[in-house]
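Appendix C: a fully annotated inverse folding record. The material below is reproduced so that readers can follow the format used throughout the book. The structure is listed first as tokens, followed by the designed sequence.
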């Protein structure tokens, strides 16, 4: 898979622009606040159906306009194909794949596999449990349609169960109705937990190999899936028992307190929690290793090379980590944004340059 052209209309600060990408490294450069990250955001939208910066689609529409259109042309299996995303304020996003309208944005997942490494990526190390759950879920949804369906089912179960818990709290429903929802939550929740465990075990192996190179062998990593569900051979039964044992507590809180929607991923470096005890430099190394491990995992599971998006992160890495990253991305289609073109022109790599100024794309003549 190789992306070729991105067309942006009324997207952020882009009125009507085309961006053409090379097969290897495309370097998008320019001063701050010119629109470099907006290109990455659009590409990530094609990979996941969501922005990594906002959940409010209206923010993506150019000021003074009512809609945006995005079109991505790419080559896959020796065919030129396209995806279009349309959005009008007050309406739902529309998705077209090769001019055929799709009913769900989730139909995007897996068409343009991509890994994003941005300043926000540090949140996977030092942020909230929700940030780490989101990262795990995005990866699994990209490589496993069954996981996506289970996650959608699980979220509906939690939503409906929360409504019931509040109704029981107000004496409008009977507590014995929870049994059906607990059975469904345990069944689907167990499937989610098991897939997360498999992913984490695989990522840990890759991250240790990568950290060995980044840290000259001075750091090792351990990934721990943190859940109050006791780990046994029968996760579903254990989860069902946990839910039933805590019915009164959930009714009292009016909320689902147990399950994969509350679990966490703990990342330990040299047996210490990286969120609490690691320096910022170590956290960057861990985040870098995690994202490269995710890229390798997606490639292994889908047998397709993901697009790598590096948004304003090279300046955050020291020279050694920059060199290591460049060695890793050799031969991979990569989009890099930066304010420092000169540094990259001296790297010796085959790079195509795209200048961004005030929402306009200036390709080399």
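Designed amino acids, in order:
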């Amino acid at each position: 898979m190789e992306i070729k052209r991105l067309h942006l209309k009324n997207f952020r600060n882009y009125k009507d622009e085309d961006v053409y990408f090379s097969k290897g490294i495309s370097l998008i450069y320019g001063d701050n606040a010119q629109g470099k990250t907006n290109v990455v955001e659009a590409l990530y939208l094609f990979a996941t159906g969501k922005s990594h910066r906002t959940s409010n689609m209206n923010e993506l529409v150019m000021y003074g306009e009512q809609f945006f259109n995005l079109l991505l042309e790419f080559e896959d299996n020796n065919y030129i194909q396209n995806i279009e995303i349309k959005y009008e304020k007050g309406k739902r996003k529309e998705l077209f794949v090769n001019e055929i309208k799709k009913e769900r944005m989730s139909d995007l997942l897996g068409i343009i596999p991509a890994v994003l490494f941005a300043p926000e990526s540090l949140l996977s190390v030092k942020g909230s449990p929700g940030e780490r759950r989101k990262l795990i879920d995005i990866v699994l949804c990209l490589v496993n349609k069954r996981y996506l369906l289970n996650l959608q089912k699980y979220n509906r179960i939690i939503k409906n169960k929360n409504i019931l818990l509040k109704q029981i709290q107000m004496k409008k429903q009977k507590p014995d109705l929870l049994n059906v929802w607990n059975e469904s939550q345990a069944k689907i929740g167990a499937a989610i937990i098991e897939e997360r465990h498999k992913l984490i075990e695989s990522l840990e192996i890759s991250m240790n190999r990568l950290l060995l190179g980044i840290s000259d062998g001075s750091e090792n990593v351990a990934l721990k899936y943190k859940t109050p569900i006791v780990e046994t051979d029968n996760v579903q039964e254990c989860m069902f028992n946990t839910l039933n044992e805590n019915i009164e507590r959930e009714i009292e809180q009016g909320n689902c307190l147990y399950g994969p929607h509350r679990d966490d991923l703990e990342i330990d470096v040299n047996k210490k929690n990286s969120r609490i005890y690691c320096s910022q430099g170590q956290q960057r190394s861990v985040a870098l290793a995690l994202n490269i491990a995710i890229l390798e995992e997606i490639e292994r599971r889908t047998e397709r090379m993901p697009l790598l998006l590096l948004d304003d992160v090279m300046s955050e890495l020291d020279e050694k980590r920059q060199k290591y990253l460049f060695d890793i991305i050799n031969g991979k289609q990569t989009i890099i944004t930066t304010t420092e073109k000169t540094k990259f022109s001296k790297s010796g790599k085959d790079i195509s340059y795209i200048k961004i100024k005030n929402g306009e794309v200036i390709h080399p003549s």
